[in-house]
Design brief:
about 325 residues; 2 domains; 14 helices; mainly alpha; globular
């Protein structure tokens, strides 16, 4: 196996000696760098076949990368930023009543699931996919715009942005995921769900706004659904389809000063991750990932186990 960041070097070294009519293939989650390297270094009489287990032959490489940018790269960054924010605050989310309850149980478990993995897997998806960098930049912009309106307590503009994003999700003709709050509530790893306090859910509001601003239909991308993407879309959908929870979220985002530090830390973390990826800083990505992973190290095994159970149930 060749890591995506080494593909061009390896193809440049060995590609020219490929025998006539040979088949050269790649099955990575990022197609663009491979296609560029193959076309640049392989002989003209070589057959190139790219594949991925989540896609059929009708999907072009660029379309593949555009979809995985949303289903994988942006999904991962959202949860990675949550983890970094909690680390920088010096507190575990399962000890804070703001981060318990159905939706937040999913956020915490998916965050731990990602940090139970290897950084090179996620950095390759984010940094070497040109569409991922674009969509992550949009996610960071959406988050920054919403956070700015929250600081100003500009309810009118804030609601306008949220309502436009909500309409694009609720009115979608595709099948909805419709997560079960009762089941989500069973997967707390700390404070019981009954003790939860309101949350601004800035990460989820930002995701919906980013989809709307980029003209992305997340339901169309279910063609390449991963458990993480399905759950991320599911909790965004749940928030926007539950009018009572959405109104509580809006009020908390605009007027709950207790949440302001949490939101500031998340805002900073999103900006950090977006900058690292925008600069194509692989080593910086790995350092940021490992530092956050170390903070959660003692609970990652439990998070992996419970996230597996959650995925099976939902």
């Amino acid at each position: 196996m060749v890591p995506v960041e080494d593909v061009e070097r390896v193809v440049a070294q060995y590609g020219p000696s490929t025998r006539k009519d040979a088949i050269v293939s790649s099955g990575t989650s990022v197609m663009t760098p491979n296609i560029e390297a193959f076309e640049k270094y392989l002989p003209d009489d070589v057959n190139i076949i790219n594949w991925h287990w989540l896609f059929g032959p009708s999907i072009e490489p660029q379309e593949h990368d555009k979809i995985t940018a949303d289903t994988q790269a942006v999904t991962h960054v959202g949860f990675e930023a949550m983890g970094t924010a909690w680390k920088n605050m010096g507190g575990f989310p399962w000890e804070n009543p703001t981060y318990v309850g159905g939706v937040d149980n999913v956020k915490v478990l998916m965050c731990l699931r990602i940090y139970g993995g290897k950084p090179h897997v996620y950095s390759g998806l984010a940094i070497h996919n040109p569409f991922a960098r674009e969509q992550i930049t949009q996610y960071a912009k959406s988050e920054s715009d919403l956070f700015g309106l929250m600081i100003q307590e500009d309810e009118q503009q804030f609601r306008e942005k949220i309502n436009r994003a909500r309409e694009s999700i609720v009115s979608c003709d595709n099948s909805h995921i419709l997560l079960d709050d009762r089941i989500m509530g069973e997967f707390s790893i700390g404070i019981p769900s009954e003790q939860r306090t309101p949350n601004s859910h800035l990460s989820l509001l930002s995701m919906a706004n980013a989809w709307y601003q980029a003209g992305v239909s997340p339901y169309d991308n279910m063609i390449c659904q991963t458990p993480l993407f399905r759950l991320r879309l599911g909790i965004v959908e749940y928030l926007f389809r539950c009018s009572e929870l959405l109104e509580e979220t809006i009020q908390t985002a605009l007027y709950n000063k207790r949440m302001r530090r949490d939101d500031l830390e998340f805002h900073t973390a999103v900006r950090e991750w977006s900058t690292i990826i925008g600069n194509r800083n692989v080593s910086g990505y790995h350092r940021q990932f490992e530092a956050t992973k170390e903070f959660f190290a003692d609970r990652i095994p439990e998070g992996m186990r419970k996230s597996n159970e959650l995925i099976q149930r939902l």
